[in-house]
Design goal:
The protein is built from 4 helices and 6 strands, in the order ββααββββαα. With 170 residues, it is α+β, with helices and mostly antiparallel strands. A hairpin with a 3-residue loop joins strand 1 and strand 2. It has 2 domains: 76 residues, Alpha-Beta Plaits (2-Layer Sandwich); 71 residues, Ribosomal Protein L9, domain 1. The strands form 2 sheets. A 3-stranded antiparallel β-sheet has the order 1-2-3, covered by helices on one side. A 3-stranded antiparallel β-sheet has the order 4-5-6, with no helix packed on it. Bound molecules: iron/sulfur cluster (SF4) and FE2/S2 (inorganic) cluster (FES). Iron/sulfur cluster binds next to helix 1.
């Protein structure tokens, strides 16, 4: 299988870049008639759903592995009004915006490695799972937090000696 598959339907063209895919499985779980899981051979079927639905599958693909081009004059994907970066639990950073990488446009969605183990940097390649990367993004809770919360506040005051006054005269 080549890294990038391009499949034309009657109304929409799908581009699938396997090297960007983080295997979140959103595409095959939400629309298995378009992205058919666990089959040999052709698994992308752009005509199996309305082009708007196919476009929405792409919009929900966090890695940008799925992109599309409308062949029916319908609207193409646009950058969001607000740039976003989401922290995926135990995984990559997911960017949503008009993205450039080393000066080159790379589309509107990308998941970049946060664990350091990817073999396709800066993209995440799913290696965070085998690397055992754990980083929820939540604020760490101290083990003794209840005791700390109830502990009385102790204030220590230190009284400093008065500074010596300079002596005047003989
Ligand atoms: S990253 Fe995109 S292409 Fe890969 S499984 Fe998830 S939704 Fe599908
Ligand atoms: S975060 Fe996925 S490979 Fe590093």
């Amino acid at each position: 299988m080549s890294a990038i598959e391009i499949v034309d339907g009657r109304k929409i063209r799908i581009r699938f870049d396997a090297k960007k895919c983080i295997h979140s499985r959103g595409c095959v779980l939400s629309h298995p008639e378009v992205f058919v899981p666990n089959v040999q051979g052709e698994w992308i079927h752009p005509d199996a759903a309305a082009p708007e639905a196919v476009a929405e599958i792409a919009h929900q693909c966090p890695s940008g592995a799925i992109a599309y081009e409308r062949l029916d004059g319908g609207p193409e994907e646009e950058a969001p009004k607000v740039n976003l970066v989401r922290l995926r639990e135990n995984g990559p950073l997911a960017f949503h915006g008009a993205l450039r990488l080393a000066g080159a446009e790379i589309g509107f969605r990308a998941t970049l490695c946060r664990c350091g183990a990817s073999k396709n940097k800066p993209y995440c390649d799913g290696s965070h799972a085998s690397a055992g990367f754990v980083a929820s993004g939540e604020v760490a809770v101290l083990a003794d937090w209840p005791q700390r919360q109830n502990a009385a506040l102790t204030v220590r005051l230190t009284v400093l000696p008065e500074p010596e006054k300079p002596s005047i005269g003989p």
